[in-house]
Amino acid sequence: MTPFLTMWDAESRLGGRLVLDATDVLVETGEFVAVVGPNGAGKSSLIRAFAGLLPVTGGIVRLKGDDIRTLSPRERAERVAYLPQERRIAWNLPAIEVAALGAPFLAVEAAHERALKALAEIEAAHLADRGVAEMSGGERARVLLARAFATNAQALLVDEPIAGLDPDAQLMVLERLRARADAGQAVLASLHDLPLAARFAHRVLVMEHGRVAADAAPPQALTPEILQRVFGLSAQWIDGPDGPLLSAGRRHSPPDGSTTEPPGA
Ligand SMILES: Nc1ncnc2c1ncn2[C@@H]1O[C@H](COP(=O)(O)OP(=O)(O)OP(=O)(O)O)[C@@H](O)[C@H]1O
Predict the structure, then answer these.
(1) Among 22-36, 100-114, 183-197, 242-256, where is mean pLDDT lowest?
(2) Its Gene Ontology molecular function terms (predicted)?
């Protein structure tokens, strides 16, 4: 495995606020890394920085060893595919046309072939000819994931890839992402579901206020101490038949340190 996505001491601000703060991240080829953290922790910012959509004002972001600022849009597109958190599609195109947008450098026929293969990979081939404006939110989410898969880029940057999907589709998508990593891609995915992150990712990166609070294999990253400090959860892991299960309750005090008494206390 070789480092593919690297970020050293990165700093970035949005609206005057530090959204990346001395952030170090490394994702190797063949790795599925899950980014977790509370709302606003900086997960999307991290992913957008690797997609070249959020400039860093300090530190450096590299794709396959090259400073992202030195790469042309085409070179970036060959190295990373990006699934945005926003699932809006402006035009009512058939799904196959939307998925084919992931392969803009191919001739139409080859792009359609790639798009169909990507749709089939996430069990959405039956949607190929349907207009995306006439789809459910979860169906549209699958089409956008197929667009990212159709790129054949060396790394996948996917922001909440299972948001809005039914439970079976969530497992299927995570299986596919893991399979792509095992086949040699570098996969960086933001997830809110901690048990699924622990089950499918090789490594979990916990973000808190733009900083990396933990970066390790799932059991070492998602410790009861981290779950309490970062997420405000009183939690422990239990061995389940299909992987780790999280038994969690609210701590009755938000993670910012202020205290809230439980009702009736
Ligand atoms: N366009 C923007 N302008 C100003 N601040 C922004 C903008 N987008 C995001 N932020 C702020 O940047 C911080 C990080 O946001 P980011 O979207 O990276 O968090 P996140 O961890 O992905 O959150 P979520 O789980 O809610 O998607 C938050 O404090 C957010 O309010």
Answers:
(1) 242-256
(2) ATP binding; ATP hydrolysis activity
Measured by CA distance, the residue closest to atom 30 of ligand 1 is 40
> Quick one: pLDDT band at residue 243, thresholds 50, 70, 90?
confident
> Using CA positions, which residue lies closest to atom 25 of ligand 1?
39
φ, ψ dihedrals at 27, nearest 5°: -125, 125
Give 94-119 pLDDT, tens digit per residue. 999 999 999 988 999 999 999 999 99
Alpha carbon distance 29, 139 (integer Å): 29
Q: Which of 130, 151, 172 finishes a domain?
A: 151
DSSP bridge pairs for 3: 28
Give the C-alpha separation, 28 to 155, whole Å: 9
Q: How far apart are CA 55 and CA 227, in angstroms?
A: 30
In a domain, 257, yes or no: no
Please indicate, yes or no, whether residues 139 and 159 belong to a single structural domain of this protein.
no
**For residue 248, what pLDDT band results from cuts at 50, 70 and 90?**
confident
Contact (Cβ atoms closer than 8 angstroms) between residue 112 and residue 159: no
Range of the domain at 51: 1-64+154-233
238 assigned to some structural domain: no
Q: Is the ipTM of this complex over 0.95?
A: yes
